[in-house]
């Protein structure tokens, strides 16, 4: 019953029919809007907590910063591995919605966990780990659902709309936290409870409105043999999928992390802490505004050129941080370019990857791409820290800009082969 | 699961939103009703920073004083809200909330009137006034100055109340480490304590995952390292010893031991306080230290212990923090 309903009511058909030109202007599918709504609400919740967590730990719990540093341990490696496992499970059992839902639910529960953890540092560390785990688990199935509910030629737009909705949430979160604190003063637990309620609402929306999106797959694919581990490894054995994962990992090496970018800006301008969170808000704003247009652009001129353009914007951001521009123009330019970088790469890279990955293994493939990026990002952040110490911030950021240039050349060599990646659209 | 109509689904979402919204609003309302401000016992005028046999401390985020002879007894609480407070010779410093995200260093006269205010980045951590009441210093934690997303770094500033000259951050000072010039962008300072000449000071400097005791010269804008693993120094009234917190086995994760360094012999002796003390201790007199300890639920208490390693810790002011003798 459900299968039948979702098949006929799907607004945008998956099969590349004879009218791509007409569809280019169609709305994104209902499933994308639903997933975007879930992301939006979840991001409000997540950013509420992110905005007050340092205040809570230092002023609420009176933890010393050193103790807090211990919290920020080695969760990242573990969550990266679990992300791939989750992606594979989603493909094998064709339960992408379920796995995504588990991820959203884990993060929601983690908000309440902060209340229960009290002043115990290991408990707080565990709660933060659960939250990150939830985020790691849900991203790949969510993006796979987006690709599976969107015709290949409209993927850029779909991801653009999704990421724009996502960043609206990121934008509203700190404001919501601020509003709660205005009412309750220093009672950070009220922020956590509110954040939990918001996250729980997102799970409700996911359960009710997001479809597994059979796309005919459940009807005729249910008889296919289940995805095997060997098949999953096959993704890395060669062909365009491996090139993609390699390229994504390399691109991850080019990013040094938001913290560094904002820190460099703060040092250049000697901004106070109260302005510091606004730097991230500025980037989100640029991302929010540019995500959808750049996604549409990617569908028209090709996704690779837009991704390349995005990383060029990143290189320009780094150069600005060591350049002669100062004052408000520096802030405005840096944050706009930085937001443009995210808008041109975050969703577009997955839109680029989607059609290359076989539908059966799409979640696994997306998880691999995201994991490769995340791990490379970890490495690049550590390397940048070392470079900063050795050469000073200005030279380190120049070196980062140089790295971006090198990585771009490598990416072009990997992806700009005469493959379908460079064509304006995937074959009709 | 049978298919629901879109209308039914929307109804469920709206119902969930109302329910969850009610939970959030209800919790927020109770949280907001919790008493945040203690009723001032004697009004603003009653708390003074004039030297006398009283102790200054913070009670439930508000400046308060108690009699030195009966510190657990009746308390005078002012309306002034501070996260850290310290006073000497009739001058006070208060790290005061400006908004949920920002703080001010406020210099107070003996009647708690603000004579100066400096907005500072970061979350308040340490505050000190030199024995003469002239020099004021503070330390805040600044988010984002770190390689990890959750890391913090510190900013330490000094204000000369006589000239108004302000050093917003010590990080520009020239460093001599182990006798040689040293530069590194990861340098952080915290916990300043002044000497009697109002120019030289001691502080903690951290760089490359090590923490040093440094002696600084404000006029010359220099610091030099004296010893490793000394944090939050506090100079005794006679200027001969530094109380500080020492990381157990040089590993802060193992806790802090309240100890005293003899400046002439550079010998360290631990106090009888064996619990982990993460505070810049205050000298009540040449023989006694006061410091804040937190209970399991986070509530602070002010404790005291002899500086010479003898005796046992005693609870001085229950439910208070940030102790300072009014000298």
TrEMBL record, chain B:
Region (Disordered), start-end ranges: 306-327
Gene3D superfamilies: TolB, C-terminal domain (2.120.10.30)
TM region positions: none
Keyword Cytoplasm among record annotations: no
Pfam families in the cross-refs: PD40
Origin superkingdom: Bacteria
Record has Signal as a keyword: yes
Entry keyword set: Signal
Signal peptide, first to last residue: 1-24
Full protein name: TolB-like translocation protein
């Amino acid at each position: 019953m459900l299968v039948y309903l979702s098949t006929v009511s799907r607004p945008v058909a998956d099969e590349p029919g004879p009218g791509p030109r007409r569809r280019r202007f169609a709305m994104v599918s209902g499933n994308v809007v639903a997933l975007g709504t879930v992301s939006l609400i979840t991001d409000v919740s997540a950013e509420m907590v992110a905005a007050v967590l340092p205040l809570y730990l230092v002023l609420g719990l009176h933890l010393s910063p050193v103790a807090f540093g211990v919290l920020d341990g080695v969760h990242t490696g573990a969550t990266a591995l679990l992300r791939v496992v989750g992606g594979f499970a989603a493909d094998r059992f064709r339960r992408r919605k379920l796995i995504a839902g588990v991820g959203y639910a884990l993060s929601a529960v983690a908000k309440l966990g902060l209340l229960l953890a009290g002043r115990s540092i290991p408990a707080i560390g565990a709660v933060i780990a659960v939250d990150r785990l939830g985020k790691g688990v849900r991203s790949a199935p969510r993006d796979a659902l987006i690709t599976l509910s969107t015709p290949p030629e409209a993927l850029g737009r779909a991801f653009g709309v999704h990421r724009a909705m996502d960043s609206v949430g990121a934008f509203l979160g700190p404001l919501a936290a601020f509003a709660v604190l205005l009412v309750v003063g220093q009672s950070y637990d009220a922020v956590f409870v509110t954040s939990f309620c918001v996250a729980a609402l997102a799970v409700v929306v996911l359960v009710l409105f997001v479809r597994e999106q059979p796309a005919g797959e459940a009807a005729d694919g249910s008889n296919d043999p289940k995805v095997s581990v060997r098949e999953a490894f096959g993704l890395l054995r060669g062909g365009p999928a491996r090139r993609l994962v390699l390229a994504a990992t390399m691109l991850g090496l080019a990013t040094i992390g938001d913290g560094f970018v904002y820190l460099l800006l703060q040092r250049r301008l000697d901004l106070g802490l109260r302005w510091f969170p606004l730097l991230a808000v500025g980037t989100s704003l640029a991302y929010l505004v540019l995500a959808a247009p750049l996604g549409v652009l990617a569908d028209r001129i090709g996704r690779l050129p837009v991704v390349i353009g995005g990383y060029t914007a990143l290189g320009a951001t780094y150069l600005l941080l060591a350049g002669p521009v100062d004052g408000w123009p520096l802030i405005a330019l840096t944050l706009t370019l930085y937001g443009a970088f995210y808008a041109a790469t975050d969703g577009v890279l997955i839109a680029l990857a989607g059609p290359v990955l076989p539908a059966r293994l799409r979640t696994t493939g997306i998880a691999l791409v995201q994991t490769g990026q995340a791990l490379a990002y970890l490495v690049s952040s550590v390397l940048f820290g070392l470079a900063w110490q050795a050469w000073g911030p200005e030279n380190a950021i120049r070196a980062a800009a140089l790295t971006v240039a090198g990585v771009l050349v490598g990416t072009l060599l990997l992806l700009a082969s005469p493959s379908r990646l460079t064509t304006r659209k995937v074959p009709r | 699961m049978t298919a629901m109509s879109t209308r039914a689904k929307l109804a469920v979402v709206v119902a969930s939103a109302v329910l969850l919204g009610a939970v959030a609003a209800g919790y927020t309302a109770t949280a907001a009703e919790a008493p945040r401000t203690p009723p001032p016992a004697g009004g603003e005028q009653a708390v003074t920073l004039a030297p006398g046999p009283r102790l200054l401390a913070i009670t439930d985020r508000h400046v308060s004083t108690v009699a030195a002879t009966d510190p657990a007894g009746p308390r005078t609480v002012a309306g002034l809200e501070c996260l850290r407070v310290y006073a000497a010779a009739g001058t006070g410093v208060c790290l005061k909330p400006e908004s949920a995200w920002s703080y001010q260093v406020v210099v107070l006269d003996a009647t708690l009137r603000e004579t100066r205010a400096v907005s500072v980045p970061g979350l308040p951590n340490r505050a000190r006034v030199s024995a003469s009441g002239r020099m004021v210093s503070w330390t805040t934690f600044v988010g984002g100055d770190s390689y990890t997303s959750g890391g913090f770094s510190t900013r330490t500033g000094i204000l000369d109340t006589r000239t108004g000259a302000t050093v917003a951050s010590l990080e520009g000072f020239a460093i001599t480490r182990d006798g040689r010039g040293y530069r590194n962008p990861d340098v952080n300072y915290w916990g300043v304590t002044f000497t009697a000449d109002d120019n030289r000071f001691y502080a903690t400097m951290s760089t490359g995952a090590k923490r040093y005791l440094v002696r600084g010269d404000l006029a010359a804008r220099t610091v030099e390292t004296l010893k490793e693993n000394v944090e939050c120094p506090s100079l005794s009234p006679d200027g001969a010893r530094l109380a500080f917190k020492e990381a157990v086995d040089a590993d802060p994760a193992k806790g802090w031991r309240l100890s005293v360094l003899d400046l002439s012999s550079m010998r360290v002796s631990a106090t009888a306080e064996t619990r982990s003390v993460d505070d810049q201790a205050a000298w009540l007199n040449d023989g006694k230290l006061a410091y804040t300890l937190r209970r399991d639920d986070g509530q602070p208490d002010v404790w005291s212990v002899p500086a010479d390693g003898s005796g046992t810790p005693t609870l001085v002011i229950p439910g208070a923090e940030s102790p300072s003798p009014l000298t």
